[in-house]
Write a structure and sequence with these properties.
- The complex is a heterodimer.
- Chain A is mainly alpha-helical.
- Chain A has helices at 10-43, 59-69, 80-97, 115-137, 140-171, 176-181, 191-194, 196-209, 221-224, 234-259, 271-289, 297-326.
- In chain B, the strands form three sheets. Chain B has a three-stranded antiparallel sheet. In chain B, strands 1-7 form a two-stranded parallel sheet. In chain B, strands 2-5 form a two-stranded antiparallel sheet.
- Chain B has a domain at 51-87 and 119-176: Alpha-Beta Plaits (2-Layer Sandwich).
- The longest helix of chain B is centred in the N-terminal third of the chain and has 28 residues, at 2-29.
- The two termini of chain B are 43 Å apart.
- Chain B is elongated and about 95 Å long.
- Chain B has helices at residues 2-29, 71-75, 96-103, 137-141, 167-177; strands at 40-41, 52-54, 81-84, 124-128, 147-149, 164-166, 190-191.
- By secondary structure, chain B is of the alpha+beta class.
- Classes of the chains: A mainly alpha, B alpha+beta.
Chain lengths: 327, 200
C-alpha cells in the first residue's frame, strides 16, 4: 500500500467500490437470469434451461454474448440522442444505489449519514430513463409504456417513502448502517416484525417500483409488445435488463437492511447474513412473478392511491405515536 | 359498513394471494414432469394414433389377415390406400398389379369362386400417409380386422415420397425383427415410467 494510494483515501475507496459493484451487478445479473428461468420452470413443473452446459448453467452467459453480438439499431423516426442516453441513464444511477448499502459492518463504500435518501433519489432517476426510452423510440408502444412507467412510479413512490419513513422514525436515522445496528440479531428485534404493515407495503411497492410482474405494466407484452424497450436491440436492451435486475438487488438489499436486520444474524453476524436475506427477498420477488397474472392499469393505480397510500399514512401516524410514547 | 366490507375484501384478497403462492410453491418442490426427449421417452405410446398398419395372422407373422377385399380403400375419404389383390387366374398377368398401382385403381374384390386353398392376401398394400387424415374409417370397415393404428410416433421424412409407405413390407420387416426399429438411436434412451407422471 503506497502512501499516495491508501485505502483511507475516499477516492480510492470509491473507485474500488464502484468496480466491485459493477462486478457484483454483472455477476448477479447472470445468476439471476438463470435463477429466474429455473424458478419459472420449476413452478410449472418444467426443467428450465437444460442444454447449454451442465443443467443449463452456461445459458445466461451465452445469452449475454448473443446480446453483445447483435447490431445496435436506431429507429429512424426516434430521437437518436435521447434513445441512446436512456439505457445508460437506466443503468448508471442504479450502480450508485449500491454505495450506501450495508453489506457488512466494516464494508463501507462511503461515509454517508443520508444513505437512504441517496438510494431513493437515484432510484427515482430510473423513471426518467424509461420516459426518455419511450419518447426517443418514436414508437406508440414505447410512448404508452413510458407513460405507464411514469404514472406507476409516481403512484408507488408515495407509499414506499411513507413506509421507509416509518422505519426512519423507529431507528431515528437515515443511515442504513445505523438502521441496521438499531435492530438486533434475532427476528423479533427486526422491524419487519415490529412493524409488519410497513414491511408489507414496502415489498409491494418495491415490486411495483422495479416494474416486476404482477406490476410490469410498462412492458406488458400482450398489449405493448415490450413497452419502452420495444425498439432496443442488443446491449441497449441488455442494459435495461441489467438495470432491472440491479434495481431488484437494490430494493432487496434495502429491505434486508431496513426490515430484516441487515448483516446481523443469530449466529456469526456478517456479510453472509445480509446476502442470505437479500437473496431470500429476490427469490420471493421471482416467485411472485411466476404466480400472479399482470394487474390491469386502473387496478394498479387504485391499489396505490386508494389502498396503500392511506394505509401507509396510518402506519406512519401509528409508528410516530408509538415511538413518541415508547421513547 | 363499507369500511368493514373493504377490510373483509382486503382480507379475502390477501388470502387468495397466499393460496396462489401456495400453488406455485407446492409445484416448485415437486419433480418436473417434462420428458426430455432424446434422453428420455414416453412409454404411453399404446394410445398413440399413428398411420395405419397391417395386422399379421396369429399363426403366420409374415402374412396379413387382410383378404384384399378393398373395403378400406373404398371407405377412405382421402383415397390414400392402394390395395392390390392377388390375380384371379392361375396364370398371373405380370403387369396387372403394377398397372393398377400406376393408375391408383383398386382391384375389385376377389370372387367367391376363387380356390379356397389359395391365399387371399394382397400382393401390394400401399398407404400414402401424406393424404391421410387419420379418420379411422379403414380400420372400422375392415371385415378381417387386419388394420390398426400403429404407434410409430417417431416417423420423420424429408420428402413426400417418404410418406408413401409399403405396409406389407413394413409388416414383414417387423415380423423379421420382432419389433419395429425405433427412430432415435440414442444409446442412453430410457423410457419414463408411467407412474412418475401424475395426471394433470
Amino acid at each position: 500500500m503506497s502512501m499516495t494510494l491508501s485505502l483511507a483515501d475516499p477516492l480510492v475507496r470509491l473507485i474500488l467500490a464502484l468496480v466491485g459493484i459493477f462486478a457484483f451487478v454483472a455477476l448477479n445479473g447472470l445468476v439471476l437470469v438463470y435463477v429466474e428461468r429455473k424458478v419459472a420452470g420449476f413452478c410449472q413443473r418444467r426443467p428450465g434451461p437444460l442444454h447449454v452446459g451442465p443443467q443449463g448453467l452456461i445459458q445466461p452467459i451465452v445469452d449475454a454474448l448473443k446480446l453483445v453480438g447483435k447490431q445496435l439499431l436506431t429507429p429512424p423516426k426516434g430521437d437518436r440522442v435521447l434513445f441512446w442516453a436512456a439505457p445508460l441513464l437506466a443503468f448508471l444511477p442504479v450502480a450508485l444505489c449500491f454505495l450506501p448499502l450495508p453489506f457488512d459492518a466494516s464494508l463501507k463504500a462511503i461515509e454517508l449519514n443520508l444513505g437512504l435518501v441517496l438510494i431513493l433519489a437515484f432510484s427515482g432517476v430510473n423513471v426518467i430513463a424509461l420516459c426518455l426510452a419511450g419518447w426517443g423510440s418514436g414508437n406508440k408502444w414505447g410512448i404508452l409504456g413510458a407513460a405507464r412507467a411514469v404514472a406507476q412510479s409516481v403512484a408507488y413512490e408515495v407509499p414506499l417513502l411513507l413506509s421507509v419513513l416509518a422505519v426512519a422514525f423507529m431507528s431515528g436515522s437515515l443511515d442504513l448502517f445505523v438502521v441496521t445496528e438499531s435492530q438486533g440479531a434475532w427476528p423479533w428485534q427486526w422491524y419487519a416484525l415490529k412493524n409488519p404493515l410497513a414491511f408489507l407495503i414496502f415489498i409491494v411497492c418495491a415490486v411495483a417500483e422495479t416494474n416486476r410482474a404482477p406490476f410490469d405494466l410498462p412492458e406488458a407484452e400482450s398489449e405493448l409488445t415490450a413497452g419502452f424497450h420495444t425498439e432496443y436491440s442488443g446491449m441497449g436492451f441488455g442494459l435495461f435488463f441489467l438495470a432491472e435486475y440491479a434495481n431488484m438487488i437494490v430494493v432487496s438489499g434495502v429491505a434486508a437492511a431496513l426490515f430484516l436486520g441487515g448483516y446481523q444474524g443469530p449466529v456469526a453476524s456478517g456479510i453472509w447474513w445480509f446476502l442470505a436475506k437479500l437473496y431470500a427477498i429476490l427469490l420471493l420477488i421471482i416467485w411472485l412473478r411466476w404466480t400472479y397474472p399482470r394487474v390491469r392499469f386502473d387496478q394498479l393505480l387504485n391499489l396505490s392511491w386508494k389502498r396503500l397510500t392511506p394505509v401507509a399514512l396510518l402506519v406512519l401516524a401509528g409508528t410516530a405515536i408509538a415511538v413518541r410514547l415508547g421513547g | 359498513m363499507s369500511v368493514s366490507n373493504s377490510f373483509k375484501d382486503a382480507w379475502n384478497y390477501a388470502k387468495s394471494l397466499l393460496i396462489g403462492l401456495g400453488v406455485t410453491g407446492k409445484n416448485f418442490v415437486k419433480p418436473t414432469i417434462t420428458v426430455v426427449y432424446p434422453w428420455q421417452q414416453v412409454d404411453n405410446l399404446s394410445t398413440f394414433r399413428g398411420h395405419v398398419e397391417l395386422i399379421p395372422k396369429d399363426d403366420d407373422l409374415f402374412t396379413p389377415r387382410c383378404v384384399a377385399c378393398g373395403a378400406c380403400a373404398d371407405a377412405c375419404p382421402s383415397h390414400c390406400l392402394t390395395v392390390v389383390a392377388p390375380p384371379k387366374t392361375p396364370k398371373p398377368k405380370a403387369d396387372a398389379p403394377a398397372a393398377a398401382l400406376v393408375e391408383g385403381r383398386v382391384i375389385p374384390k376377389t370372387e367367391k369362386a376363387a380356390a379356397p386353398e389359395k391365399s387371399r392376401a394382397p400382393v401390394q398394400f400401399f398407404l400414402d400417409y401424406s393424404l391421410c387424415s387419420l379418420c379411422g374409417q379403414c380400420e372400422r370397415v375392415c371385415p378381417a380386422k387386419s388394420l390398426r393404428f400403429s404407434n410409430n410416433v417417431y416417423l420423420t421424412g424429408s420428402s413426400r415420397e417418404d410418406f408413401k409407405i409399403d405396409l406389407l413390407a413394413r409388416m414383414k420387416s417387423q415380423a423379421a425383427g420382432q419389433s419395429a426399429p425405433s427412430r432415435p438411436k440414442s444409446p442412453a434412451t430410457a423410457p419414463v415410467s408411467e407412474k412418475e407422471k401424475e395426471p394433470a
